[in-house]
């Protein structure tokens, strides 16, 4: 128990350092979030840019002369209350944007991770059992080549081939703009249709990674003494393959499942921006483009919290399923 | 003495590389690109003048990879760009190895609060998702002209932490062993203990890590360029990809499909070489994986 408390405290320190670093980084970004608004004010009212900027700052609730440390303190104390800040571009609280965007992101990444995990486990153990044959060569060869395609390149290729050229998936959005969200079958089908692009772009690289990891683990376990012993006892090959090898090779991967979902929260940024899919990553990309510092720090904090919580869950799961890793 | 050292290096590091099929294939691919980067630009001249009459020419003998939106030969750009792609990757991996080793050794050796704090900092860099962070960095430096060393450092920031963690764990286990105790008793000094006693044990780790992170170094630097750090070098493949997809809209016109295709083909082939080399090296140096091929 003391171990768990220590671990939580340690992770809170890590979280604090990470969030503070990002806060400073974001606030060092060049560009004034109020600039765009100021330009339109200056044109409309025919006034000087300086005066227009001042009005824009007032309208967006930004004080450019406020010292960084004051802003930082407000940010941290808000965060402690569960308030992720205020978006100057969308003129609303970051919590509201998170509430709107997070379900889409979670929907895509959890489904993509789950499917790619199951398929990867199957392909990986299959390849390991057929080690050295053509089947193994094809499976692990294709998986390595997929790993060589940077995820953003893969996402762009899927978008251009399937959305632009073949027009079999939509170009963006989570559902058609002219539809009201409801629990009707036609709406749900549309939602799935819109999620296909980002889902494949997320699932394919992951599937390759799971396949290779599972193949490595399985190969390693097949050399262990207890497998030889099981064979010597005359157990059926299928029993050994499923009960002894597959389960033991899979256990460490189950722990990394949590970490994978945590990291996907951040890694999904590019996929969502490329597919214009209105999840966390899409708003993150938008926040960078329009220099919305409040939205940016809020979303980044959310992503880092997600990764840290996932890491913690993975540690606990690992300790639970692997008796060799005892909680001190 | 020097000669002996060289032959040791050969037997310890070069021979295992050639004996493993994967690392041999990976080395050949990487060697091909290194040759392209070193002597390629001397053989292939680069003419970046736009020639709109020759826009989007299909691959031919005159233009092996065709021409781009501006009628510029794509093959020439790929060859010249390989120089910045390769040098960025190698430099970023090198920086990452240096930072990772220094921080790792320090973490392993320091005790108390300062050690714990270093540990927390290593973990911070492990948990921060790199692509969102790279997006922010790309935006910060979007309007600045950076040189290779600076971009390599930006990439290295996201690569060093795993090595630091491994090195720290190694130093922690080694630190209490007899021969380190002996050196300490003999008052050999911290520098001697760290760099002579401990470093010797770490070299295989550092070597393997340098190779395994080549893939991420390539992916990150190309991603950074692709995301809009475009002021770096117009022939860097990441910048070329950005131009192809976003500036020239090459995939919207059926005639321009070969433009991004050849850029992506080279990127994937280069990274694939890195993956093969890394997989081979891990098989060679990680005894647990040995004997499976």
TrEMBL record, chain A:
Domain ABC transmembrane type-1 intervals: 102-314
GO cellular component labels: plasma membrane
Position of the signal peptide: none
Residues passing through the membrane, by range: 7-26, 104-125, 137-163, 183-204, 253-275, 295-321
Annotated compartments: Cell membrane
Family statement drawn from the similarity comment of this UniProt entry: Belongs to the binding-protein-dependent transport system permease family.
InterPro entries: BPD_transp_1_N, MetI-like, MetI-like_sf
Predominant location: membrane
Keyword vocabulary terms for this entry: Cell membrane, Membrane, Transmembrane, Transmembrane helix, Transport
Record's keyword annotation contains Transmembrane helix: yes
One Pfam family linked to the record: BPD_transp_1
Gene3D superfamilies for the chain: MetI-like
Protein name: Binding-protein-dependent transport systems inner membrane component
TrEMBL record, chain B:
GO cellular component, one term: plasma membrane
Localization annotation: Cell membrane
Segments forming domain ABC transmembrane type-1: 86-280
InterPro entries, per database record: BP-dependent_transpt_permease (IPR050366), MetI-like (IPR000515), MetI-like_sf (IPR035906), OppC_N (IPR025966)
Predominant cellular place of this UniProt entry's protein: membrane
GO-annotated biological processes: transmembrane transport
Protein name in UniProt: Binding-protein-dependent transport systems inner membrane component
Organism: Caldicellulosiruptor hydrothermalis (strain DSM 18901 / VKM B-2411 / 108)
């Amino acid at each position: 128990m003391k171990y768990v408390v220590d671990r939580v405290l340690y992770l809170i320190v890590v979280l604090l350092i990470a969030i503070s670093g990002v806060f400073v980084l974001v606030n060092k970004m060049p560009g004034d979030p109020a600039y765009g608004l100021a330009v339109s004010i200056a044109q409309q009212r025919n006034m000087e840019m300086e005066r227009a900027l001042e009005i824009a700052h007032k309208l967006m609730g930004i004080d450019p002369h406020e010292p960084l440390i004051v802003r930082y303190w407000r940010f941290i104390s808000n965060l402690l209350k569960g308030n992720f800040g205020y978006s100057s571009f969308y003129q609303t609280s970051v919590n509201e944007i998170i509430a709107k965007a997070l379900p889409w992101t979670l929907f895509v990444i959890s489904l993509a991770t789950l499917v790619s995990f199951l398929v990867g486990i199957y392909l990986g153990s299959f390849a390991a059992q057929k080690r050295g044959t053509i089947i193994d060569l094809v499976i692990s060869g294709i998986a390595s080549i997929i790993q060589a395609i940077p995820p953003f390149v893969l996402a762009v290729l899927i978008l251009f081939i399937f959305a632009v050229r073949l027009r079999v998936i939509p170009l963006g959005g989570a559902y058609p703009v002219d539809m009201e969200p409801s629990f009707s079958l036609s709406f749900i089908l549309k939602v799935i249709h819109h999620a296909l692009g980002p889902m494949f772009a997320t699932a394919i690289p992951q599937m390759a990674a799971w396949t290779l990891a599972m193949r490595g683990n399985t190969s390693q376990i097949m050399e262990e003494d207890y497998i030889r012993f099981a064979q010597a006892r005359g157990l059926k090959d299928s029993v050994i393959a499923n009960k002894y090898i597959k389960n033991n090779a899979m256990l460490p991967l189950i722990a990394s499942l949590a970490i994978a979902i945590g990291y996907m929260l951040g890694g999904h940024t590019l996929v969502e921006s490329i597919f214009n899919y209105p999840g966390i990553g899409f708003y993150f990309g938008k926040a960078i483009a329009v220099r919305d510092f409040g939205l940016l720090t809020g979303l980044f904090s959310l992503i880092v919290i997600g990764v840290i919580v996932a890491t913690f869950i993975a540690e606990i799961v690992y300790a639970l399923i692997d008796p060799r890793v005892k909680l001190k | 003495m020097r000669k002996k050292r060289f032959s040791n290096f050969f037997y310890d590091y070069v021979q295992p590389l050639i004996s493993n099929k994967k690392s041999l294939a990976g080395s050949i691919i990487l060697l091909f690109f290194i040759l392209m980067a070193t002597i390629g630009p001397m053989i292939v001249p680069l003419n970046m003048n736009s020639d709109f009459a020759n826009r989007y020419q299909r691959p031919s003998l005159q233009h092996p990879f065709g021409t781009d939106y501006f009628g510029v030969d794509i093959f020439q750009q790929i060859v010249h760009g390989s120089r910045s792609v390769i040098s960025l990757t190698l430099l970023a991996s090198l920086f990452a190895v240096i930072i990772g080793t220094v921080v790792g050794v320090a973490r392993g050796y320091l005790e108390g609060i300062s050690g714990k704090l270093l540990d927390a900092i290593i973990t911070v860099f492990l948990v921060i998702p790199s692509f969102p962070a790279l997006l922010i960095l790309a935006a910060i430096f979007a309007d600045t002209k950076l040189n290779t060393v600076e971009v390599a450092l930006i990439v290295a920031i996201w690569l060093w932490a795993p090595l630091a963690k491994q090195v720290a764990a190694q130093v922690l286990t080694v630190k209490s062993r007899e021969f380190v105790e002996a050196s300490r008793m003999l008052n050999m000094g911290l520098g001697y203990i760290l760099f002579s006693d401990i470093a010797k044990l770490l070299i295989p780790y550092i070597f393997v890590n340098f190779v395994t992170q080549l893939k991420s170094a390539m992916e990150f630097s190309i991603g950074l360029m692709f995301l809009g750090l475009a002021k770096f070098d117009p022939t860097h493949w990441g910048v070329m990809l950005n131009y192809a997809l976003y500036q020239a809209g090459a995939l919207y016109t059926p005639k321009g499909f070969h433009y991004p295709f050849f850029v992506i083909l080279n990127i994937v082939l280069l990274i694939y070489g890195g993956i093969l080399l890394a997989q081979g090296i891990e098989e060679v140096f990680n005894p647990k994986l040995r004997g499976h091929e």
